[in-house]
Each structure stands twice: as C-alpha cells, then as structure tokens.
Amino acid sequence: MKDKVLLFINGDPPKSFPNIEEYSLIACTDGAFHYLKNLNFPLDKLDFISGDFDSHSGSDENMYEDKFIYTPDQDKTDFQKALEIIAEKDFKKVDVFGGSGGEQDHFLGNLTVAFGFKDQFDIKFYDEFSEYYFIPKQFAVTGVKDKMISLYPFPSVENITTKGLNWALNNGNLNITSRIGTRNFAIEDEVFIQYEKGNLLIFVGKNYL
Q1: H-helix segments, 16-159
Q2: Backbone phi, psi, residue 95, to 5°
Q3: How many Å apart are CA 143 and CA 131, to the nearest integer?
C-alpha cells in the first residue's frame, strides 16, 4: 500500500527521477516547479505546488494553477510550509529531492527544517552523492557494504557504538565542534548504530572503493 510522499524542493535538480508509481502524493515548491518543467517531469502527476510564487513566471504554468497553494509567510521556508501541508494529509514518509546544492545556507536550512519535523515524519533526502536522514537511537541499514557512511551529530551524540563500519565507535561521543564521524565506510552488508543521547544524521553514499 502506497503511503509515501515525493517532494521536490529548490536545490540542485535530480539527475534522475524515482519511480513515481511508488508514491501516494507528489508535490513541489514553486522554485522546483521550473526545473521539473525543464526536465520534462509529468507535471500532471503533481498533487500540489506550494510557495510564495516569487519565482512564478506566469506563462504556461497557468494551466496548473488549480494545484497552487499560496503560502506567503516569510518567516518560514517553502520546504517548511510544504511539510506543514503534507502533515495535514496524515502522511508519515517523505522522500525529498533538491535538498542540497546551490546556496549552502539553503542546505543547512533544509536540515534544520527536517530536524524540526523528525518526530512527525520519516524524511529522507536524496541527491546524486548520497541519501541522508536523521536516525533513531537504535538503527540498522542494510545493503551498504563498501558504501561511504558518514555520521554527523546534530549538534552532539553521546555514547555511540557502531558495528559494520571500518572505523568502529565504541561508546564514543560526537560533537560538531570537536569530533564528527564522516568519511567512514561499511565493511559489512549491515551497519548497526546505537547511541544514548543527542541527534544523529546518517549519510549513505556511493561505493567507497
């Protein structure tokens, strides 16, 4: 049963699209709408397009105006406002494309927005280098042997232990001001991670070797 949302936001356009048949709802922010159009994405499959429409050109997009949701609040990002709309529809899983690239303050802002919704949604970001997301205090990821695995504290993690990574952690601590866990790689097909306190992002990248 499909229960996932596909959301495009205004970072770097994806190199390829996922199977849209796997999603129950497909949406984008107004900035992402333009690259979807240029990449010949089937725009009729979009369920809504949200944003303040400051980048709306007002030309052939007008045929999709019935899908526009105007969200002019300048105190929130378009990503945040799109997630609020999705929350009203009771979905729990959101795959996000376009979360990285471009201006790096946008990338950091997108991570901060995702952090604010991490207890409400299972949010996964995808780009041409990796997939990345916040993980719970006990977590296993499979099918990752020889892939780059980076662990990034947000902003700190206490008593973290890992199994299946080349450089293992054993009741260690991570903190963005002193020690982070980036550029590791999986030596087993399954990597297990547990920690006692804090918040942790995992980046699962392409093959390391």
Answers
A1: 30-38, 78-87, 104-116
A2: -100, 125
A3: 13
Distances (CA, A) of 121 to 114, 134, 181: 9, 10, 24
The tokens 């009203």 sit on which residue? 88
What is the C-alpha separation between 195 and 161, in angstroms, rounded?
A: 6
φ, ψ (nearest 5 deg) of residue 33: -55, -35
pLDDT tens profile 17-26: 999 999 999 9
Alpha helices (runs of H) in 24-180, residue ranges in sequence order: 30-38, 78-87, 104-116
- Distance between CA 20 and CA 169 in Å, rounded? 38
Instruction: Compute the distance between CA of residue 99 and CA of residue 129 in angstroms, rounded to an integer.
Output: 12
CA 192/CA 92 separation, integer angstroms: 23
CA distance 147 to 204: 7
Comparing CA positions, the residue from 51, 189, 34, 178 lying closest to residue 102 is 34
Cα pseudo-dihedral 44, 50, 52, 55, rounded to 10:
-40
Burial class (CB in 10 A: 0-12, 13-18, 19+), 185: buried
> Is residue 1 pLDDT above 60, yes or no?
no
**Whole-model pTM above 0.90?**
yes
Residues 125-161: tens digit of each pLDDT? 999 999 999 999 999 999 999 999 999 999 999 999 9
